Fold:
Amino acid sequence: MKLKSLLSIFTPIQLLQASFFTLLTLSLTLHAVLSFTPTLLNPHLLLLSQHKALLFSFLYCIILTLLAYLCTRPRPVYLLNYSCFKPDHDRKCSYEVCEYFVRRSKRFSEVSENFMRGIYLKSGLGNEAYAPPFIFQTDYEARLRSAVQEAEEGMITAVDSLLSKTNVPISMIDTVIVTCGMFTPSPSLASLLVNHYKLGDSVKSYNLSGMGCSSGAAAVDLAARLLRSGGKTAGYALVVVTESISLNWYFGDDRSMLVTNCIFRVGCAAALMTNDGARRRDAKLELLHSLRTHHGADDSAYAAAYQAEDTHGNVGVALKKDLIRVAGEGLRSHIKKLAPRVLPVVQMVNYGYRAVMGALKKDGKPHVPDFTTAFEHMCVHTGGKAVIETVGRLMRLSDDLTEPARMCLHRFGNTSSSLVFYELAYFEAKNRVKKGDRVWMLAFGTGFKVCSLVWKSLQDSCMDADNPWMDCIHRYPVKAW
Ligand SMILES: CC(C)(COP(=O)(O)OP(=O)(O)OC[C@H]1O[C@@H](n2cnc3c(N)ncnc32)[C@H](O)[C@@H]1OP(=O)(O)O)[C@@H](O)C(=O)NCCC(=O)NCCSC(=O)CC(=O)O
Structure:
């Protein structure tokens, strides 16, 4: 660690110059030693003296390789901590609340009411996921005000909680990234945070939108890239992953759009990331890999989840039935890229061998490597019952491995891009994460994107006081479907 921080003071050119100088000094020293040593007394030195050119080239290569490794190795990025928003108890959206809202709003046909009831009952959602504030208003009208309220409540609560846990002064935050897929007010939600916390004028803010449920992973990836490119100075990036579903409630009769109403619920997570090596001992996780694959060049993948107007002009997000196939295809191609980065050598060799044999036999059955050898914990995308089932089937994951995803869907619904943090919180609430464990977060997003974050745990986890599972973890796991 000390050597690394010492080396980071120099530019690569200076390091190269230093390596030449070291080589020259070494050569001269060795030459002097060999010239003055009685060769008969030391046969090893005699051998070296006869192959000086070889020896020096060898030494030179070693030094250069070492320097190249140290210069190009990405700076570690840590997740200091994170917080998940848990709305008030009275925002719980039970079956009765849904039924009451749907009937009283008088905005749906009887056929649509029956369809939503059927989907809701089969969805895997329990009675405790949270609805947006407007559902509890008497006029049942979603307005800009309620959408801002929904986003603001989640962001401020999660960030307040995070800052009090991490003891990082506001003044140290130099980057703010907010991701919110479907709601883009002006000024942006990132600016809302800058204003609320009175952040300094040098803060860099980024506001991502329209990127679907994988944008939480994309925001973490962006934060890591910014922190790594920031040179030697220690930086702190606040990443807020939220969604505001108020203005995206669909009032119409298109079935694929009605599915959205049934599974999306309120959620938000805030994470503080840093490249400050001095905070390593306080950090929860270190980011080992991030991988994003975009499958939007394919028309059916692009259209799998799509915001549009229905035939009567009502705006909604259609979750096409084809989404499940698209997610499976995307995942297959994603893990081909992920495998070489994370799998142990033995698994990789086995995977390569099976892939070659499969291609020779042309049996059309792609071999899926055993990712349980690469990760101790998996936060599988909680996009919906069928999404979890597809990931489990495709990757041959046991029910134990998809348990956190199923429980997350049951307790919080599809909270969009923040869902992987709710899953991490589940692992922590169950005290399952130990120091050194590797955690895989896998998220899908409209577009169609597949994103992976691979973390290493830096400490044995325990349940933080603000863990969203705090008051209910004793009841989980339950049978969700
Ligand atoms: C909706 C479900 C809970 C339904 O559960 P089941 O599979 O048990 O039910 P089922 O297949 O019998 O379907 C019940 C009825 O609903 C219809 N149905 C199901 N899915 C439909 C859809 N997407 N569009 C239109 N109709 C649909 C079926 O045809 C059937 O109608 P009939 O009875 O008439 O035959 C599940 O299919 C599911 O989880 N789907 C995936 C949801 C999804 O797309 N999630 C991704 C969110 S997007 C995301 O996470 C990423 C992002 O936003 O970026």
